[in-house]
Amino acid sequence: MDTTRRIGNLALIGFMGTGKSSVGRQAAEVLEFTFLDTDVLIESRAGASIYDIFQQQGEPAFRALECEIVQELEQRDKIVVATGGGLPANDANLASLKKHSLVVCLWASPETIWERVRAHSHRPLLNQPDPQAKIRELLAIREPYYRQADVLISTDLRSVREVVTQVVHQFREAQAGRR
Ligand code: S3P
C-alpha cells in the first residue's frame, strides 16, 4: 500500500445487503470511532428519504449529494463510514475515500444479496419487476470498482461478528503499517 496515505478512517464499500451498516456500527464501537452512514447523512441533508429523493429528484440528484458528502468526509478523523452501494462506482469518490481511509469492500454473491434484501422495500433501485436480474446487472458493472478496495472480505458464510473481527484486524494492521 502507498505508505504516504493517511489511514485515519475506515470506509466500508460494497453492494446493498453486504452488511456495511451493521458491520460498520460494530467496528466503530470496537475502535471507539464515530460511525457514519452516507445514506443517513444524505437523508438528513435533503430532509427526505432516499426513496423520495430518487422518486422526486431522480438518481442524478442523489449521486450529486453522495459526491458532496464524500468530499466533506475528507475533513474527518476517527470515523467508520458505511457508504451507499453505488457510491464507489465513481473514480472521484473512490479516490477521495482512499485519501483518508482504509477502504474495505464487503462482498456477497447475487444469491446471498437477494436473500438479504428481498424483505426490504426501501431500496429504489430494486423496486422493479425482476430485482434479481438488476442485482446481477449492477454487481457486474460495479465489480471493477469494488475490486479496487484495499481489502475484500466475503460475507457469504460469515456472521456479522466474524466480519467485524476481520475488518478491525485489517484496519489495525494498516494503521501499524503492516499491510
Ligand atoms: C444504492 C444503495 C443504497 C442507497 C441507494 C442506492 C445503490 O445503499 O444508497 O438506495 O446504488 O446500490 P445501501 O447499499 O446501504 O443499501
Task: Write a brief structural summary.
The protein is an alpha/beta fold. Helix content is 53%, strand content 14%. The chain is built from eight helices and five strands, in the order E-H-E-H-H-H-E-H-E-H-H-E-H.
Question: Which cofactors or ions or other ligands sit in this model?
Answer: shikimate-3-phosphate
What is the subunit organization of this protein? single chain
Helix content: 40-55%
Q: What class, by secondary structure content?
A: alpha/beta
Query: What is the chain-wise order of helices and strands?
Result: EHEHHHEHEHHEH
How many individual helices? 8
Give a structural overview.
With 179 residues, the chain is of the alpha/beta class. 53% of the residues lie in helices and 14% in strands. It has helices at residues 20-31, 38-46, 50-57, 59-73, 91-100, 110-117, 131-146, 160-175, and strands spanning 9-14, 34-37, 79-82, 101-107, 151-154. Strands 2-3-1-4-5 form a 5-stranded parallel sheet. Helix 6 (110-117) packs across helix 7. The radius of gyration is 16 Å and the shape is globular. It starts with 8 loop residues before the first strand and ends with a helix. 35% of the residues are buried. The structure holds shikimate-3-phosphate (S3P). Shikimate-3-phosphate (S3P) binds at residues 16, 20, 39, 50, 84-86, 123-125.
